[in-house]
Amino acid sequence: MERQEQDVEMKSYEQLVVDQQKKTGKVTKQDFQMLSVIGKGSYGKVILVKKNDTGELYAMKVLKKSEILKRNQVEHTMTERRILGSVKHPFIVKMDYAFTSETKLFFVLEYCPGGELFFYLSQIGRFKEDAARFYASNILLALENLHSLHILYRDLKPENVLVGRDGYVKLADFGLSKENVEGNHEAKSLCGTAEYLSPEILLRQGHGKASDWWSFGAMIYEMLCGLPPFYSKEREKLYKNIKYGEPRLDMPFLSEAAKDLCRKLLEKDPNKRLGSGERDALDIKEHPWFECINWQAIAEKRVPPPYKPQLDQSTDTKHFPQEFTAMKLSPQDVESLKDVNDHGWGGFSYENTGVTNDADYEMNQS
């Protein structure tokens, strides 16, 4: 009898929460059904979820407040929240909601069922030039947009490039990004992923937009060759190679234009690197390797992609690593968590009230 009364009380409490949400219109975790884990990191998980009222699928990034505080990542997390809430671009992952609970932070993001570009590279080994050029054109337009807003991305790698349902790709994960950067030497932190760090970051010389173009060059090289340009299993040797070595470009499958582009993007001196000048991405767009690209058509998604994710159903997660999708959702993932109205995380909550379509994006050819 006592158990039944507790159950009734619990149902009454949960109904009260739902009724309150309906009154306030505020979105919380209770508005979503947890389906499966699709990613995991040191701060939390990424879970495929379905919104109860619309049936729409999202990728819910769940971060533990305790881990963020312990690792001094509060500012990075709030930077990511600000960027995701302000940037609207067809090749940058969209955030529709953000909210908090007593112990966690939630980003509710556009779901890209094709998974990470890294997944395809690991399966295929390397891409043909046309495929690499297509993905590079998407990434370049995303970086161009970020730079126009004085945002450094700082973590370009195949794991952070997601493949959408339509086969086009989007940048995700802005935890290492930096706002309000205009030049090439303003940022000072040593941050990023080892294989894609620019020499000026490693040498602590100050860095800026040119460091994103170095990572872009490393990414193009990896798509074409199968490994990052200065790869070594030994961290110290890797760093030495980045600072003082030259990328190997004598492979017979590389076109002369591809070799030239990699050489110019992997220039050690950030001031001489392609894209480092005031024209930023425009200089890279005009390189011969991109000569066949119609930038307006790419921006409007009128070019057929190299591959469209083949999905058995809308919730199919075959393009995500099995080490994640095989994980069982824990009770903590599924259970309702008390909403705390951003206590201690002022301004974190967010709801995308406007509908931004990819078609709304207009290319600036000037």
Automatic annotation (TrEMBL):
It catalyses: L-seryl-[protein] + ATP = O-phospho-L-seryl-[protein] + ADP + H(+); L-threonyl-[protein] + ATP = O-phospho-L-threonyl-[protein] + ADP + H(+). InterPro entries: AGC-kinase_C, Kinase-like_dom_sf, Prot_kinase_dom, Protein_kinase_ATP_BS, Ser/Thr_kinase_AS, STKc_AGC. Signal peptide: none annotated. Pfam families: Pkinase. Gene3D superfamilies: Phosphorylase Kinase, domain 1 (3.30.200.20), Transferase(Phosphotransferase) domain 1 (1.10.510.10). Residues 32-290 form the Protein kinase domain. Its EC number is 2.7.11.1. Keywords: ATP-binding, Kinase, Nucleotide-binding, Phosphoprotein, Serine/threonine-protein kinase, Transferase. Belongs to the protein kinase superfamily. AGC Ser/Thr protein kinase family. This is non-specific serine/threonine protein kinase. It comes from Stylonychia lemnae.
